[in-house]
Amino acid sequence: MDYGMIGKIEKAKRYAQQLERIHFDDFSVTMEGENNPHVVRYNAGTWQCDCDFFHSRGRCSHTMAMEMVLNGMVIKHAEPVAE
Question: Does 68 fall in a domain?
Answer without folding.
Answer: yes
